[in-house]
Specification:
Blueprint lengths: L24 H13 L4 H5 L2 H13 L15 E5 L4 H5 L6 E5 H8 L9 H36 L1
Antiparallel strand pairs: 1-2
Helix pairs in contact: 5-6
């Protein structure tokens, strides 16, 4: 067998570093709540039939990404927890859950330097992304209308 000449590098951006002194209590509270609900940890919760059913309901209700407006035909869709409450972890409500593509989800959860955001910070970042997307979309429409109207004047 042929030996590989190049070593594969591990990507540091997925290590989820946290800033010294950063308050990650929301994740601790989430894990305690999941233990109370009978799940060993968040990973096991995400693999459970309960979460799969909640995820499916949310993606059926909102099939487009909240951040960039792509749909499931052009993006891998996920669901972001804005807050971890017993009612949204058990599926009683879909409040504080956002349908989002994997690209936007990674961008709001992890900073450019590779640090993990809290759910509250990530949700604020999601709202900022959505606002930017809406502004960009309106600029594209305005520029298109301006070009068309200028074109009509010339003709």
């Amino acid at each position: 067998s042929k030996k590989c000449r190049f070593k594969r590098r591990k990507h540091n951006k997925y290590k989820n570093k946290i800033h010294p002194g950063q308050n990650m209590d929301e994740y601790v509270d989430r894990n305690e709540l999941l233990l109370h609900l009978g799940f060993r940890d968040y990973k096991h919760y995400l693999r459970s039939p309960l979460w799969k059913e909640i995820r499916e309901r949310k993606l059926t209700e909102n099939p487009r990404c909240y951040g960039c407006d792509r749909d499931e035909t052009t993006a891998r869709m996920q669901v972001h927890h804005g807050h971890y409450t017993e009612s949204n972890l058990t599926g009683k409500t879909l409040e504080h859950l956002f349908a989002i593509c994997s690209r936007c989800h990674h961008a709001i959860e992890i900073t450019r330097n590779g640090y993990k955001r809290t759910p509250e910070q990530a949700t604020k970042e999601l709202f900022r992304w959505r606002k930017l997307m809406l502004v960009r979309r309106s600029l594209k429409v305005d520029n298109h209308v301006t070009r068309v109207s200028l074109g009509r004047r010339i003709l």
